[in-house]
Amino acid sequence: MMFWNRKKQNQPIQYEKPKPDDVRIAVHFTGIVQGVGFLVEMWRRANEMRLSGWVRNNLDGSVDANLQGNIKKIDTLLEQMQQIPRIQIERIDTQQIPLQDNGPFEMLNY
Question: Which of 22, 23, 38, 88 has the lowest CB atom count within 10 Å?
Answer without folding.
Answer: 88
